Automatic annotation (TrEMBL):
Name the UniProt record assigns to this protein: Cytochrome
Keywords: Heme, Iron, Metal-binding, Monooxygenase, Oxidoreductase
Organismal lineage: Bacteria, Bacillati, Actinomycetota, Actinomycetes, Kitasatosporales
Organism for this UniProt entry: Streptomyces dysideae
UniProt xrefs under PROSITE patterns: CYTOCHROME_P450
InterPro entries per the UniProt record, alphabetical: Cyt_P450, Cyt_P450_B, Cyt_P450_CS, Cyt_P450_sf
Length: 419
């Protein structure tokens, strides 16, 4: 579909855009709806109470001006999500890093940021390389034996799952069990979550919360060389720089933000390699060439389609000529901004090294993704290995998609060796 075609798509005026994005055909291809939004309703008032912002310049403005569009505080959240009163899972949104404002945000980010400096992340390279070698070799062996392999569960998910778990100190035996709780918990990020989805989020929130509580107590008794132990020390020091709730939520956030997002990025990149074989050469070159490929996959089809941070207008503010009244909830449509022709010429084309506007796939400003360097490391280590060891893959059926928004994630990506 060309840019002109996508702009001509007219969503059903009787249905809210968020509902359309979650059902066929937009659940599989949201980009025509995004094109319509950018052109016709760059500030779209959803019946779910949020104004959806879709143009690159507006999204970037909101991200970079937290004083004009701060994160929703507890009172604002209570107004925006009346259901939050009876559902603890919404605490993730209010008390998390992305939901907090300066000075609290500055303090929390200062405490945790040093664990994610480029030097620290670079130090993980050898471990990521050996994990990637092991997972890719296992998958290659099964494929060469004629099996169909689900690369989502065999490679894309375990890579970031083990990396973030090793960093935090989550024991291997517990990882798979806990991993399924994250998508359930993240239902609350969805602006149009159903009551059943919110109940499932609550259950997952409790299970993960209890688990982390027990792990914190264990590390307090017997510290190890991991991030949980380091944060417990910060919590317990003289000034109590980290409160009980903050410690728990930080672990929550790091654990939940740390793998579904990256797994989706890897799955998306794999789809590009399979469906656009001419792009494979980017992974056979030097490191900058692999980096350019990874950056373009993150722009072309961002894992995080709606920014998790819920903001509101601190004062009446105009975006694209539309006044957003004070107190309005604002959601940033990163998937739409990433295909804005005003920022990226021929935005639907896949063009590694295209240059142009700064990608917003990891956000921007004070809430810029803490794990961006880690995800990039994982993707640039893993994808060239996959391409070298499995140069010709074919899909074995359509990919299984879980959702379209807020995270455009996968449940399966079955492949076989191409003839
Ligand atoms: C491809 C993978 C990833 C993508 C696309 C992604 C995307 C994003 C985006 C868009 C934001 C900004 C949210 C907003 O402003 O509303 C963000 C923030 C954040 N991300 Fe990521 N993320 C990824 C991987 C990770 C990983 C691996 C971690 C964990 C180490 C992580 C931890 C965080 C945290 C803690 C924040 C909040 C930062 C703050 O508020 O200061 N992310 N991410």
């Amino acid at each position: 579909m060309t840019v002109q075609d996508t702009a001509k798509v007219t969503p059903d005026p009787g249905r809210d855009v968020l509902e359309q994005l979650m059902s066929p055909p937009a659940d599989l291809d949201p980009y025509p709806v995004y094109a319509w939004l950018r052109e016709n309703a760059p500030v779209y008032a959803s019946k779910y109470g949020a104004s959806l912002i879709s143009r690159y310049a507006d999204v970037q403005y909101v991200l970079k001006h937290p004083e004009v569009f701060p994160g929703a505080c507890e009172e604002a959240m209570a107004q925006m999500f009346p259901q939050a009163a009876g559902h603890e899972a919404y605490q993730v949104l209010v008390t998390s890093l992305v939901g907090s404002n300066p000075p609290k945000h500055t303090r929390l980010r200062g405490l945790i940021g040093k664990e994610f400096t480029s030097r620290r992340v670079g130090g993980l390279r050898a471990a990521v390389e050996s994990l990637a070698d092991r997972l890719v070799d296992d998958a290659a062996e099964r494929l060469r034996a004629g099996e169909t392999v689900d690369l989502h569960t065999a490679v894309s998910l375990p890579t970031p799952l083990h990396v973030i778990s090793d960093l935090l100190g989550i024991p291997s035996a517990d990882r798979s069990r806990l991993a399924v709780l994250v998508p359930a918990m993240m239902n609350v990020v969805d602006p149009a979550a159903s009551p059943a989805a919110v109940n499932a989020a609550d259950a997952a929130f409790h299970e993960l919360g209890d688990y982390l509580g027990a792990l914190i107590a264990e590390r307090r008794r017997t510290p190890r060389d991991d991030l949980i132990s380091a944060l417990v020390l910060v919590h317990d020091d003289d000034n109590h720089r980290l409160s009980d709730g903050e410690l728990r939520t930080l672990l929550f956030t790091l654990w939940s933000a740390g793998f579904e997002t990256t797994a989706t990025g890897i799955d998306n990149a794999l789809l590009v390699l399979i469906e656009r074989p001419e792009t494979r050469k980017w992974l056979l070159g030097d490191e900058p060439s692999a980096t350019a490929f990874v950056e373009e996959t993150l722009r072309h089809d961002p894992s995080v389609q709606v920014a998790p941070g819920i903001r509101f207008a601190a004062t009446d503010t105009a975006l694209s000529g539309v006044t957003i009244p004070q107190g309005t909830q604002v959601r940033l449509m990163l998937g739409a901004a990433s295909r804005d022709p005003a920022a990226y010429p021929q935005p639907d084309d896949f063009m590694p090294g295209r240059g142009g506007a700064t990608p917003l796939s990891f956000g921007a400003g004070i809430h810029y993704c803490l794990g961006a360097g880690l995800s990039r490391l994982e993707m640039t280590v893993l994808l060239p290995r996959l391409q070298r060891k499995l140069p010709a893959l074919a899909l074995d059926g359509p990919p299984g998609r879980r959702r379209s928004i807020p995270l455009r994630d996968f449940t399966s990506l079955k492949v076989r060796l191409a003839e």
